[in-house]
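Hey,

Quick one before I head out. I ran the complex with nitromethyldethia coenzyme A overnight. Inputs first:
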Amino acid sequence: MKLKKTLEKKINEHRPRTTRLLKEHGDVKISEVTIAQAIGGARGVRCLVTDVSYLDPFEGIRFRGKTIPETFEALPKVPGREYPYVEGFFYYLMTGDVPTKEETLEVVEEFKKRRQLPQYVIDVLRAAPTDTHPMTLFSQGILAMQRESEFARRYAEGMSREEMWEPMFEDVCNIMPKLPVLAAYIYRMKYKADVHIPADPDQDMGGNFAHMMGIDPPYDDVARMYFILHSDHESGNVSAHTTHLVASALSDAYYALSAGINGLAGPLHGLANQEVLRWVMQFEQKLGGAEPTEERVREALWDTLNSGQVIPGYGHAVLRKTDPRYTAQREFCLKHLPDFPLFKVISTIYKVAPDVLKEQGKAKNPWPNVDAQSGVVQWYYGLTEWDFYTVLFGIGRALGVLTNIVWDRALAYPIERPKSVTTDMLEEAAGLKDSSGS
Ligand code: NMX
Ligand code: MLT
């Protein structure tokens, strides 16, 4: 595969940069840690390295240096469709090179060969109680396939650190194409009377996902847009960090991704996309047919805050403006579904919520994140089962976190192991106590 050859070349070019930084400039400080950061979730502590994406608080995400519109513009598009091949984007994330149409199609064909789900995964899914959350099934499905790991097999045989990126890459190329198939199986098992649709040999990842979900075009393009937008958000977010952390123990990609997906399933992270829809539906139920005016939305948002809950889809640990992933999906809605009532409610929340959060004065970022806008697009195209939404996020997120762990092995990043301190030590550092404890 051209992708693998290009990646190998990039890795060989990159390795001396990391080695030199480590050997000759390892003492240069790039961050300091305060007590607030140690207690407060390491917010703002610079202690992770990735070149796959970078998140500027005001500009938002850049994938390999390109903004979202630049990324969509640069990559080869599926003929007759608006959005690029997900496979071409995977090539781009992995190497930093925009692939040609031929290079993209080579990945499309390779992924088709590797997308078949083993029967034992289906057996695992079917053994779960019917009320099992789709994220649990998704994570279990990934973990069940760990026995296929090339990385684990090669490690057991004995391999050098320099070689490790290669079986990691193979595992990643085996996992990635199976994820949309796994997701579609879970969806149809849970919500579509357990009636399944076989893969279409002529379709790329986005197209085949829409087909296996049983949702007509342009949902194929919605899937491509969605997977690319959700792929990566630098390295400190819970799903990326967890995947990286687990892989740093030389756990393989199956173990690491399954763990990352478990983190994504938290309501302060990826699960916020289902929470947004749940919030809107509860709000509409309470309205009982009355118009969702700005005043009524404001009242409902205050009720949420006053009952000690967060407004889902708003706020961010790094961003300090409207998430450009929100904007990209809002623009999609303005073009394709401007009059959809649910979109109007989401837009009214966008008008009102930032001022409510500013007035409350707690959230450092009162603006919406990606999750505030993603559910309405899904709902419009018929995917109304909101507890499935985070699985969609998980397929997209896998593109980024799996790329990162290939590079982690290529650059021989060591096991991650930050140091902890005790509360006594913090009190001593703050001058509240001397070392005798008094
Ligand atoms: N609604 C109500 N309160 C909020 C919100 C919000 N949307 N966002 C932040 N706060 C509160 C936060 O709980 C904290 O309260 P306290 O001082 O009582 O502990 C205070 O504001 C300061 O928090 P921040 O420093 O602004 O935010 P932090 O970096 O700790 O957390 C999030 C970031 C994203 C977890 C937080 O904004 C949040 O809970 N948002 C709602 C859930 C959500 O949309 N998550 C999805 C994030 C994107 N993703 O896909 O992962
Ligand atoms: C993400 O996409 O991972 C979220 O926006 C959370 C984050 O970046 O912290």
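Strands lie at 53-56, 60-63.

Talk tomorrow,
K.
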